[in-house]
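Recall that a protein's primary structure is simply its ordered list of amino acids. Everything else, from secondary elements to tertiary packing, is in principle encoded there. The following example makes that idea concrete.
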Amino acid sequence: MMRIIISIACLFLALPSQAGYLGAGYSLTSTNSYDEVDDGYRFDFGTELTDWLDLEWGYINYGESRFDDPTYIPADEDNDEAARFENIGFGDFGGNEFNGITSAETQGISAGLKFKKSVNNWFQLYARVSFLAWQSDTTRVTIFGAETPVDADGNEVNDLADATNINDCGTTSYCRLTEEGESHQAVDFWYGYGFILKPFSWVSFRTEYAIVTMNAIDYPKNTFEGITTSLQIHF
């Protein structure tokens, strides 16, 4: 990620002198994969190549996204049903043990083009298409469903010291353990469109709807949608 940031910064500094802008904004975010997602923030900077075209870079932080814990369904011996988990976000299970991703903190940097259409001297419509190099740092969870303590012969016991089905928490009760997971990276297309209000030559207010679908190996396919309202300073 740091190599990409440095490369983009060098490219920006190498451009010929053009009118440019810096912006910062707050993003209201939704997702089709996670059960909860934080609102985020975003920074943009760019150069105005023509009256209708900008070259733009950005940084966006989507905050933390979270899955609800899956529901544990104990074994039903009367109906010959094994223990299982339902309402799984992203992960897999075997018997009374579930392993998966419980949350992720996602951020990215972008480079792209913004196509503008001036309605008058203070109002513009635009569409943007960018590459988004993103990184998501995950937290993994292991959940053990409650079991009846049994010995090596499968007989129920009252003393945990005699039980052979002790989980990693040292009990046969419900248990939840978390640990730092993998960091996932990829590059995907990031689209947006919106409008710009520019009451003065040096400042503008920008509202944008943006969408990106993130794809990576061993990572939940996820679409982030968001509305960002930002303030831009022009120079």
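Residues 92 and 99 are 6 Å apart (CA to CA). The first helix runs from residue 2 to 14.
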